[in-house]
């Protein structure tokens, strides 16, 4: 049961990450390689709020989300001026800066030593130990909440404006909407949701270290999203399921746990090449990422 | 100076050493179709970009209803200046209906908080927006194409959807950059009656066009541009009879 529960939580973490990245990549058409930076800042912010300030889980999630949106604004700014590849390079730079900051701000994050002793989350006075079924419930609640928010936004006129930006920014502006304002909002929502995943991760592990939030993680989430498909909810669900389940499948097939991570990257790479040739919109997506 | 329409006062735009638009002064009045004509490279599209707020003049003023056009296309659009691009530029992955809906102003569902917290009111407004968009599609004769993706429509249909999208914004100044280029002659006839209707509704229509048949059929007045300068302007019949038109297109008569 614990094993299955762990798998479910793993899936839900990647679901939140993929769905929130999907708002940027799949709807607004802004390819970003710094989602792990939002994830990491959200994780550290939530951990520090619980550990140092003594907040319970709910307020810590909201606080972390609010703090992470500040980083979201920082990332959104170059997207208002830079196009395509140039913006992706800017996100790679921001990803590197955030990782370095987590690593080197030892007085806050303890850097490479890691941040241990994050207490199990408390929700409405009830302790939720990371190994418990209750934690699976909590993670599911968070994932459902994020899914609901992003699905509703995607189907709303707000989502339509983002899709219009993806298709033709200048044409949208000719209709009296500022593309910059809408992209900024997409980044606010995307970064806040990634912070929710970060808070869950912090509560689940009880300890954080910067190595979990490198560009490798950003790339993994983006690859999962593109393999699963973008522009709807089904794509990120498929992508997250593949990320969460693939290592387990590989372990069944006899590879060691250590090899699973490496093999996963190979499998993802091959899947990506195959899909880009055969089905550029991904397994379940509706839109082709340029 | 026109307080109700568009007034250009010695508008100038340079690109490097080239003067693309050279001290052009003119007016575009509501209720009239004004054609902007001239050979390739005369500066027509540059002038449209200046009026639409997409680029800023180096000298002179663009006044719409007595106030300067604000910098930035989206701000100009909010003031009622609508633009049909020469290359149409629909949103290809949206349906025809969604394209037109995207043009309708005042949608509460475009605001984050409203979209998340008041889904019922958003949905109610969304129904109104869809109904309005269907009306606009019907106006251009494409009611039956509402659910098709814009990328699947023919070029002429795309032009008509783009006009419907433009009308959905409620714009009062319509900048139409070559609406008849590349479309079927039957659609050109349809365009002609559409433009007359729009002027009849009190819109100010600025028509940039190479199709002289369409210009003569619908334009009340003509602005003739050549190498960035306004070389003739006035009622269509008079400009047609003038020497400047022939000089601009065919060069000066050999003497």
Could you characterize the architecture of this molecule?
The complex is a heterodimer of chains A (290) and B (255). Chain A is mainly alpha-helical. Chain A has one domain. Chain A is built from 12 helices and 2 strands. Chain A has a two-stranded antiparallel sheet with strand order 1-2. Chain A is globular and about 55 Å long. The model of chain A has no long low-confidence stretch (mean pLDDT 89). In chain B, the strands form 2 sheets. A 6-stranded mixed β-sheet of chain B has the order 6-7-8-3-9-10, with helices on both faces. A 4-stranded antiparallel β-sheet of chain B has the order 2-1-4-5, covered by helices on one side. In chain B, helix 5 (119-139) packs across helix 6 (155-168). The longest helix of chain B has 21 residues, at 119-139. Chain A binds chain B through residues 149, 152-153, 156-158, 160-161, 163-164, 166-168, 170-179, 182, 185, 188-189, 231, 286-287, and chain B through 52, 54, 72-74, 77-78, 82-83, 85, 89-94, 98, 101-103, 105, 107-112, 115-116, 119, 122, 126, 129, 165, 169.
Topology overview:
The complex is a heterodimer of chains A (about 290) and B (about 260).
Chain A: H1 2-27, H2 35-51, H3 57-79, H4 84-104, H5 106-109, E1 122-123, E2 126-127, H6 133-155, H7 157-167, H8 169-173, H9 179-205, H10 215-228, H11 234-252, H12 257-278
Antiparallel strand pairs in A: 1-2
Helix pairs in contact in A: 1-6, 1-9, 1-10, 1-11, 2-3, 2-4, 2-9, 3-9, 6-9, 7-9, 10-11, 10-12, 11-12
Chain B: E1 6-15, E2 18-28, E3 33-37, H1 44-51, E4 59-64, E5 67-68, H2 73-78, E6 81-84, H3 96-101, H4 112-117, H5 119-139, H6 155-168, E7 173-177, H7 185-200, E8 204-208, H8 212-218, E9 221-226, E10 229-235, H9 236-241, H10 243-250
Parallel strand pairs in B: 3-8, 3-9, 6-7, 7-8
Antiparallel strand pairs in B: 1-2, 1-4, 4-5, 9-10
Helix pairs in contact in B: 5-6
